[in-house]
Amino acid sequence: MRKISRRLTAGAAAFGVLLTSAVVTTTQAEATHKPGTRSLATVLASDGDTFDRNWNDYDVLTQAVGAVLAAKPNSPVKVLADGKVALTAFLPSDRAFQLLAKDLTGKWYKSESQLFSGLAGLLGVDTIEAVLLYHVVPGATIDSRTALKSDGAKLTTALPGGTLKVDVLSKRFRLIRLIDADRNDADPLLNPWALDINKGNKQIAHGIWLVLRPLDI
Fold it and tell me: May I ask which residue range the UniProt record assigns to the signal sequence (predicted)?
């Protein structure tokens, strides 16, 4: 785990301010529409930013972002709070983190607070930071309609060297898989009922059912 952390930390340190270009197909009407600047951090904190019994929201993720910024105020993760910067984020649910912890430790945490504490102690702030950056595609506002037309597209993430591949399984049922760097575990699907979070703004997000892994962990 220390070796993994060192590799991820090295990548995060090299990040700087990365705003990669992305090919996003838009209609003429969309091109003339000025997107809003509400940040994803504002959206994530809108439910009170507290642990609860709802495993389908994003409390663990929100707390992870807060913990990273508390320890490293200048972390590139802070881009999530800057609504003027275009990006697309993939948001693992609390259940996704519960499944990650089960895979890494064999323990099934029954409360979100215990889950967060367990993962924080296991991974450390630098690895958590790198994992968060792997869930962000900077420089592009990719809505679900665009994603469904992007089968086979390669996305460059905010983690240096990190890439994801878009695998459209069904346009009809809006099923999209993201293929990450970990070949030993299942790849996450986008949640069809949690697409286009914060739509109409420069920062957009889609819920996912598993945590993306930047390395074989």
Answer: 1-29
